[in-house]
Structures are given as C-alpha cells and as structure tokens.
C-alpha cells in the first residue's frame, strides 16, 4: 500500500507527541501505543495491534533502569516496524520486530546525543535569570522537550515517507533470512521477560513464577485470570503483613501498661 | 522574613500537576535540575514576584543537579513550598530536598517501572494480541490515572506531614510493592510461557519404519515436547536469557544478536519454524 503525504505528516506528528510524552512520563512512548496510532492513521488496526503487542512484550524490560539511562527506543518497532508490517506483504509482526531492532538502537544513540547536546542548558538558563529574562528561562527549561518533539516528528515523517525505499531494501532480503527473522522475532520477547525478571524475581517470589507458568501453560487461563489469582495471594500477604505489624505494637503497649501498673 | 503564607491549595495542586514538566529540560549535566526550577516557577513567582532579583536568585539556586522519580516529586515540591511559604530560605530547604531525592527515586522507580508499568503493559499487550482494538487506549488510561493519583496523593502527603513521614512511607511502600511484585511475577511468568514462540518443525524419521513405507513413519518432536511439559522451549529459553543477564552480565545487544543468530541458524537447518 502507498502512504500519502498527509498520512506521513500525521505519523510524524503522532511520533512527535509520543516521544515528547516520554519526558512527561505519560507512557505514550511504548510500542503498544505508538503502533496503535500508525494503525489508526493507515487504517490497519489489526496488524498494528499485533506488532504493538509483540514489541511491547519484547521491549518491556528495556525501559527499566536508573533514571537517565537510555534504553533502545520502542519507536523502532512501534513506528518503523509497524509501518513495515502494514505496507510490506512479506513482513509479519515478528519479522518486523527483528527488522526494526537496528532502528531502536540508532534512536537510542540519537537520544543520548540530544541529552548531551542539552548539557549547556543550565548555564544558559542561569545567564537568562541573571538578566531577569524569565520568558527566556522558561524557553530554555523546555528545550529538551522541544527537541524531542522535533526529532520524533522527523523520525515518524521520514520513516513513513521513505517506506518505498525501505520496501525495495526489504525485498532484497532472501526468503530463508526472512523466515529466520520471523523465528527470531517470536523468541525476542524472552529477553524482555528475562530482563524484567532479573529485577523483580526474588527467591521468595519463585513460587509465583511457577504458579504463573502452570496457570498459563497447563490451565491456559487468559491473562486477567492469572492476574486475579496472583492478586489473591498478594492481598492475603498484604493483610497478613498489616496484622503482623499491628500485633507486636499492641503487645508492647500492653506490656508497657502492665509494667507501669506494677511500678505504681 | 517571617511566614507569609500566601500560597493556597490551588498553588500546591498546580505545582503537583507541573510534575509532568520535570524532564522538559532534561540534560546530561544536571539531569532534572532545570525542570525542578521550571516546576516551581509559578509558585515562586507568587512568593517573590514583587522582587525580580529575589525571584531570579531563587530560580537560579534551584537549577542544580536533581534526579528523582517524576511521580513522587510532588511530595518534595509540596514540602519545599510549605517551607518557603513559611519564610525559609533555600539554604534551609535544600537539605531536605536533596535528602529525599535518592530514597524517593528508589521507591518511585521500583513502584512505577517494576510494578505498575510491567503489570499494565503485559495485561494490555495480551488483550491487543487478542485483537481488542482499544487495548492501547485502555493501557494509557490505566497507566496515567494510576500515576496521577499517586502524584496527587504524594503532593497532599508532602504538604500535610512533612519530613517525619518518609520512613513510615517507605515501609508501607515496600509492603505495597512486595504485593504488587507477586502479581507481576505471576503474570509475567504466565505470559513468558504463552507469548514466547518456539516451535520445533523437525520430525524424526525412524529408518526401520520408513523402510516399510508406513505413513506414520515420522515422530513429531514438538508433540513429544508438549507431552513432557507445555511451552517447555519458550520457558527454557527465557531461563537461559535470565541466566545470561543475571550471572553473566550480558547486555541486551548481545542477547538480541544471540537470539537473531539462533533464530536464523535453527530455521535454516529446519529445526525451528513458524
């Protein structure tokens, strides 16, 4: 399918908004959300949902880390990957994920570059304040987000607009390699799950990992059902902790009162 | 300067909402420092507006290194505002502002990045997988309503209770985050078993049977594996990834490259397929 200029512009604006939203912490810069916008603009929501879901799971673990660290960016699979899957007939959501990883990494470096570029801002802001230029101070304090929106727009617009070129390049990929990328794309979410598990999984939580596996693999429960069963144990633990904390507190107060009685 | 108390509730709410702007000036020399000053700007303007020198000085002082969790920062800005409104100078509020930065970053990140985000992300991604068109919209709503509620809760907490609350808060927070981790781990393990796709297409042909020319001369290895344990390969592969990250310290790049290479090679020799 062909992407019109209007559609390319809209995809650019959508990417700009989502990428800026990353700084605001409103969770728009997630593969699930990014690809949904592309699906709406290009009128192919089912493909977009499939791409977004696969990439969301694969990238789930990439977003975690101490503040300021820059992970591979979901714009790769969310925008570029989804565009590929929608416009190119041979590309499945899985192979789109594998094909778009280099873009995710490139955008990651671009972002580090923007942060580094902005390193001079505090100095500029201080100077503006010294001159009592409060408007200029506010502009400087918003520079990073403005740059993010600009970069996002260019990525989305150019990505959509150069799809024809990308299409020719992808068509040059031999069939066996596309199948291989397809297989790899199916395996990539394992990295996301493992990544997040290295942060969350403690020894005490291993039973819950087993529980989740059994519920999904043997009982084939849908995810909401798994979450509810997990919640049952979590709430039970939470209330028990509450009681445990309340019990010794009461015990100490009564013993204090008793001793005080004795003392009197 | 004695307590002026010119700030109203709406000033606190406004500053709480401005927490979204914390990273508008994010940079590698002072991280969120510039954003912190930007958040405080309207409230400071109300406090020191009639004295541009003072306003410029206070804003300038606040442009110093800062890095914490954007969802919990209303706690800090509220305390800061309450102190400033009572006539305290920046050098007197600076200590508490800096002391809260680290703990709140830790608590906030573990809550928002390791509990709330993975939970909603996995749930709504799997709904999207089942072709529910509005799943991404629901994801955004769930995520943002939760985080906004946390922001306002923190803003109100900061205003009311000040510094003595931080210890009690972190005890309660860790209890909440432990409980949330239980749900999270259960769901993520379940999804790893469902959404990581590895299928053995290799079939084993027994030569003795093949000689007889029987139609059922091949053994479907995937069916055999499914009998041993469903989703065995995806789980084992996820465990391998876990091992490589945790024990070997592999980066995501290496893991992605390894996965892509394994995928291509094994599909090339027709062991794995789609």
From TrEMBL, chain A:
Keyword Chaperone listed: no
Membrane topology classification: Multi-pass membrane protein
Name recorded for this polypeptide: PTS mannose/fructose/sorbose/N-acetylgalactosamine transporter subunit IIC
Protein localization: Cell membrane
Domain of life: Bacteria
A Pfam family assignment: EII-Sor
Organism per entry: Lacticaseibacillus suilingensis
This protein's record includes keyword Transmembrane: yes
Keywords: Cell membrane, Membrane, Phosphotransferase system, Sugar transport, Transmembrane, Transmembrane helix, Transport
Transmembrane segments: 7-27, 74-91, 97-118, 139-161, 173-196, 208-235
Family matches, as PANTHER family: N-ACETYLGALACTOSAMINE PERMEASE II COMPONENT-RELATED (PTHR32502), N-ACETYLGALACTOSAMINE PERMEASE IIC COMPONENT 1 (PTHR32502:SF8)
Predominant cellular place of this UniProt entry's protein: membrane
UniProtKB/TrEMBL annotation, chain B:
InterPro entries associated with the record: GatZ_KbaZ_carbometab, PTS_IID_man
Keyword Membrane in annotation: yes
Pfam hit, one: EIID-AGA
Coiled-coil regions, chain positions: none
Keywords: Membrane, Transmembrane, Transmembrane helix
Membrane-spanning ranges: 104-127, 133-158, 179-196, 228-245, 252-272
Full protein name: PTS system mannose/fructose/sorbose family transporter subunit IID
Species assigned in the record: Lacticaseibacillus suilingensis
């Amino acid at each position: 399918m062909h992407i019109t200029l209007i559609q390319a512009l809209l995809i650019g604006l959508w990417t700009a908004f989502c990428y800026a939203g990353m700084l605001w912490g409103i969770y728009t810069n997630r593969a699930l959300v990014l690809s949904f916008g592309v699906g709406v603009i290009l009128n192919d929501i089912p493909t977009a949902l499939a791409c977004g879901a696969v990439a969301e799971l694969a990238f789930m673990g990439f977003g975690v880390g101490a503040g300021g660290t820059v992970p591979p960016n979901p714009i790769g699979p969310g925008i570029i990957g989804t565009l590929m899957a929608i416009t190119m007939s041979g590309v499945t959501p899985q192979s789109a994920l594998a094909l778009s990883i280099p873009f995710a990494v490139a955008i990651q470096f671009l972002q580090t570059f923007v942060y580094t570029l902005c390193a001079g801002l505090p100095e500029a802001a201080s100077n503006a304040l010294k001159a009592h230029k409060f408007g200029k101070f506010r502009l400087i304090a918003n520079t990073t987000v403005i740059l993010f929106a600009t970069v996002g727009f260019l990525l989305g617009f150019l990505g959509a607009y150069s799809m024809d070129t990308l299409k020719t390049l992808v068509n040059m990929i031999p069939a066996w390699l596309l199948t291989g990328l397809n297989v790899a794309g199916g395996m990539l979410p394992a990295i996301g799950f493992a990544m997040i598990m290295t942060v969350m999984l403690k020894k005490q939580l291993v039973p819950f990992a087993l529980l989740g596996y059994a519920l999904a693999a043997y009982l084939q429960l849908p995810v909401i059902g798994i979450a509810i069963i997990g919640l049952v144990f979590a709430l039970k633990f939470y209330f028990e902790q509450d009681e445990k904390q309340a019990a010794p507190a009461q015990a100490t107060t009564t013993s204090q009162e008793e001793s005080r009685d004795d003392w009197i | 300067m004695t307590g002026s108390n010119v700030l109203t509730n709406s000033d606190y709410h406004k500053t709480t909402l401005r927490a979204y702007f914390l990273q508008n000036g994010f940079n590698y020399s002072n991280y969120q420092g510039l954003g912190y000053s930007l958040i405080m700007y309207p409230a400071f303007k109300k406090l020191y507006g009639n004295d541009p020198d003072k306003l410029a000085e206070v804003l300038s002082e606040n442009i110093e290194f800062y890095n914490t969790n954007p969802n919990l920062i209303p706690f800090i800005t509220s305390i800061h505002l309450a102190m400033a409104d009572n006539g305290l100078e920046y050098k007197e509020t600076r200590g508490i502002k800096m002391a809260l930065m680290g703990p709140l970053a830790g608590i906030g990140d573990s809550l928002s990045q390791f509990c709330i985000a993975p939970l909603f992300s996995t749930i709504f991604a799997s709904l999207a997988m089942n072709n529910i068109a509005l799943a991404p919209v629901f994801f955004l709503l769930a995520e943002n309503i939760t985080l906004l509620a946390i922001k306002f809760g923190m803003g109100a907490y900061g205003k009311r209770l000040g510094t003595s609350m931080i210890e009690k808060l972190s005890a309660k927070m860790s209890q909440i985050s432990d409980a949330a981790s239980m749900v999270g781990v259960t769901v993520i393990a379940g999804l790893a078993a469902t959404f990581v796709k590895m299928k053995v297409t290799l079939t084993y042909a027994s030569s003795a049977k093949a000689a007889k020319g029987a139609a059922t001369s091949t053994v479907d290895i995937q069916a055999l594996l499914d009998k041993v344990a469903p989703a065995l390969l995806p789980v084992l592969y996820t465990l391998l990834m876990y091992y490589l990250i945790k024990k070997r310290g592999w980066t995501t790049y290496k893991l992605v490259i390894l996965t892509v290479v394994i995928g291509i090679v094994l599909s090339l020799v027709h062991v794995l397929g789609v």
